[in-house]
Amino acid sequence: MTTQQTSSLLAGLAVMVLLARVLGALARRFGQPSVIGEVIAGIALGPTLFHGVVSDALFPSATRPLLSALAAVGVAVFMFIVGLEWDAALIRGSGAIAPCVSICSILLPFGLGTLLGLHLASAHSHGNRTPFILFMGIAMSITAFPVLARILTDRRMSRTPLGVLALACAAIDDVLAWSLLAAVVAISGSAGPDQWRILLAVPFLLAMLFLVRPLLRRAVERRETPRLTPSLIAFLLAGLLLSGATTEWLGLHYIFGAFLFGVVLPRSGAEQLRTDVHERLGQLSGTLLLPVFFLVAGLQVDLSGVDAAGIGDLGLIMLVAVGGKFLGAFAAARANRMPPRQSAALATLMNTRGLTELIVLNVGLQLGFLDKELYALMVVMAVVTTAMAGPLLTWVLGRNTGDGGKYSSIHRLPATRTSSSGVVSAGQ
Amino acid sequence: MTTQQTSSLLAGLAVMVLLARVLGALARRFGQPSVIGEVIAGIALGPTLFHGVVSDALFPSATRPLLSALAAVGVAVFMFIVGLEWDAALIRGSGAIAPCVSICSILLPFGLGTLLGLHLASAHSHGNRTPFILFMGIAMSITAFPVLARILTDRRMSRTPLGVLALACAAIDDVLAWSLLAAVVAISGSAGPDQWRILLAVPFLLAMLFLVRPLLRRAVERRETPRLTPSLIAFLLAGLLLSGATTEWLGLHYIFGAFLFGVVLPRSGAEQLRTDVHERLGQLSGTLLLPVFFLVAGLQVDLSGVDAAGIGDLGLIMLVAVGGKFLGAFAAARANRMPPRQSAALATLMNTRGLTELIVLNVGLQLGFLDKELYALMVVMAVVTTAMAGPLLTWVLGRNTGDGGKYSSIHRLPATRTSSSGVVSAGQ
Asked: Do the chains contact at B191 and A3, CB–CB below 8 Å?
């Protein structure tokens, strides 16, 4: 790195870290998840404003690959933590309703999304159309588990029946959406001549689940109270990076491996450990590395050139994303005899896109599924759907009604704004 | 980044994180500071072994700039923490002896180092000779404050009179050495046409000391008990990065700015905060980012081609480094009427080079003062002088003698190997 590059890299990082924090706090002030502010911070430093002059000065093209490297590490750590939070126990306890709601809340937006993809393909697909269309379907079907968890915690709903159900639905949604995305990445053949490697994905997955998981469980059981020593941090970091490198090498994306490594870590007997990882690893990653991801994501968003056609497309995207997700979840909940209001609340929660969507969109941009124009519109959709969850939920649930029954305890509390620490604050 | 680059970046990071931890722990097992193992891990992954095949496979040239970016952030955080640990109170309490020992322990190796520089210039200086010669002097004069502090803590000597004196000497040494290095970097004119900016270094320094420091102190005083919230982490990160970016822009190196920002942070009333920073920020940085620096440093070390002439040069380097440092400190201590054995112990401690030297050497390599051959030899010197401190100290102090007097309490304890957490374990 030259002196010029080093100094602009460090200054750019400083500006982004600070702006993400300030706008994140501002978002919290308005009862929004901080991720909204952090994503907007990335977009604000991008080419949309001031004809990109600030953007080019702070982030000259020479330093952008360096930012990508920092962002990749941040996203890997984040996906690992999402995997670590993922809990099969959530799903087991929820009965048939969670899988049903979850699958419907994916199927409908996925179907509508592929239709929209067909419509947009002529203008925005520049390569093979099939992966583009499938990707549009997936991008519409995302629910952000971390943001959803944060919204529930903020409203003290995470232990109510509705909250637990929503978490279970989001957990299933997560795995389904990641699997679908992995499948599309795999068939898109972006790996070129090395595409045969994808065949190794199955043995890799099996090895992680039936070899690595039991080994890790036994390792945890042997320790008295597993604590987060520097050695353990190093081990976890190495594990998530290596698992990510493997899936990337297989022709999938590194996010899958990082997520998977989080999933296979033992749950029982390691609660303290998980909290520590969340606090320690999550904190620095959430303050330094993840904002770099928001920056990298935002630097690609150029809204200055959005014309009437673009706004039309955005309208369609919003309609499909919100309509598909909401109706899918609502119908499934109603079919399972949930009261209308609770069904609406659940559907509203499932419509949260958050950081998960942003990661999916960046995978799409990186692999060439999306062009920059469509990417920018989809980012707007992700921000808007995330921002609308809170106010809509307040509106749906009301503030003081209570119609009794199994899901009545959801009314306990409308928006409170406790600010807790950890990746959470930077992770949705 | 391409798929290939991403996967090798993540895999390479994983291997380095793990190897650094393992060799670091191994070093501790042998009563050595973990930094020894971590530096050797970096060298082991470099071109020295296996004709560089492993090195090229794990770290292809395309990912090396990305590693440098991660390393730069790690070094900046590390320098900030060194600055934060730096304590003027240490020096104030130590009387005239500390400045005297410190200055002599710099002057002699500096003088001998410039002579050696004169001798080596024809073979190893490829540009302007003056900065090369001065740099050789500085590189010989380094004492690593963090390693020294760790050795003292390990031997329960950090509160003995000798320990306190050694820390004070190292603290003065730090500031003197950084100032000398900054001066050499400044006069070397590596900034090219922008060299006028260096004139702004003085107002910047004054602003940091007499404007930023009081402001920060007042900010701390207003808070009840300052705790390390994510916002504060973001502020500290932004501050150290921005301060580093400024000195880099001025034509100095970013390490100075990061160090300075640590120095100007308030001491009184913020003890808990400093501990937290050390633990939290230091831990992830020490486990992930700093090992990347050791890797970047090690990837430049090629010992496979060292011939007889090289071994001769290494002998001279060792003689100047160890002889100069030891005799300078010993003579000054004796002149201040310290007993011989204690003087020898102090001189032994001052001979510790550690991570500080490695940072200085990398600055030298980056700015073209050192060629790769000389750089590799100097790294060996840094490792050997750091490794010899512990055993030499045990030998000098003995295990059971006690000749009374002011410094007798140094005999309390020879090597114990408590392993504490935080950057410390990766920071020397």
From this structure: yes
Q: Tokens at residue B310, please? A: 């090289």
Q: How far apart are CA A166 and CA A357, in angstroms?
A: 18
Give the Cβ contact number of residue B158 at 10 Å: 17
A227 contacts A272 by C-beta, under 8 angstroms? yes
Of all residues in chain A, the one with the smallest CA distance to B251 is A3
B420 inside domain: no
Please indicate whether, in this complex, the C-beta atoms of A9 and B69 are within 8 angstroms of each other.
yes
CA–CA distance, A78 with A278 (Å, rounded to integer): 10
Q: Which two tokens stand for residue B99?
A: 């400045």
Please indicate, yes or no, if residue A192 is contained in any of the structural domains.
Answer: yes
What's the rounded Cα separation, in Å, for the pair A287 and B265?
Answer: 20
Answer yes or no: is B324 within a domain: yes
pLDDT, one tens digit for every residue, chain B (428 residues): 788 888 999 999 999 999 999 999 999 898 888 888 999 999 999 888 877 788 888 888 888 889 988 999 998 998 898 888 887 777 777 778 888 888 998 999 999 999 999 888 888 877 778 888 999 999 999 888 888 888 888 888 878 888 888 888 888 888 888 888 888 888 776 556 777 787 888 899 999 999 999 998 888 777 766 677 888 888 999 999 999 999 988 888 888 899 999 989 887 767 777 888 887 788 778 888 889 999 998 898 988 888 888 899 999 999 999 999 999 999 999 998 889 998 999 999 988 888 888 889 998 888 888 888 899 999 999 999 999 988 888 888 875 444 444 554 443 333 333 333 333 333 44
Q: Which domain holds residue A163?
A: 3-416
Nearest to A283 among B191, B280, B288 (CB): B280
Rounded CA gap, A112 and A102, in Å? 16
Indicate which CATH number applies to the domain containing B189.
1.20.1530.20
Best residue in A28, A190, A277, A287 for a mutation probing chain B (most B CBs within 10 Å): A287
Find tokens 């306190």 and name the residue.
B164
Q: A337, A317, A331: which is closest to A383 by C-alpha?
A: A317
Q: Structurally, how many domains does chain B consist of?
A: 1
Residue in B with minimal Cα distance to A22:
B231
Task: Give the position of tokens 């990065």.
Answer: B241
Examine residue A423 and state whether it is found in any structural domain, yes or no.
Answer: no
Distances (CA, A) of B26 to A225, B13, B210, B286: 24, 20, 45, 17
Token match 């060792």: residue? B318
3-state SS of chain B?
A: CCHHHHHHHHHHHHHHHHHHHHHHHHHHHCCCCHHHHHHHHHHHCCCCHHHHHHHHHHCCHHHHHHHHHHHHHHHHHHHHHHHHHCCHHHHHCCCCHHHHHHHHHHHHHHHHHHHHHHHHHHHHCCCCHHHHHHHHHHHHCCCCHHHHHHHHHHCCCCCCHHHHHHHHHHHHHHHHHHHHHHHHHHHHCCCHHHHHHHHHHHHHHHHHHHHHHHHHHHHHHHCCCCCCCHHHHHHHHHHHHHHHHHHHHHCCCHHHHHHHHHHHCCCCCCHHHHHHHHHHHHHHHHHHHHHHHHHHHHHCCCCCCCCHHHHHHHHHHHHHHHHHHHHHHHHHHHHCCCCHHHHHHHHHHHCCCHHHHHHHHHHHHHCCCCCHHHHHHHHHHHHHHHHHHHHHHHHHHCCCCCCCCCCHHHHHCCCCCCCCCCHHHHHC
Q: For testing the chain B interface, which of A2, A3, A75 should be mutated: the one with the most B CBs within 10 Å? A: A3
Q: Please list, in sequence order, all residues whose beta carbon lies within 8 angstroms of the beta carbon of residue A397, skipping any fewer than 6 positions away.
A: A341, A345, A410, A411, A414
DSSP A32: -
Alpha-carbon distance A339 to B424, whole Å?
57
ipTM of the complex model: 0.83
pTM: 0.84
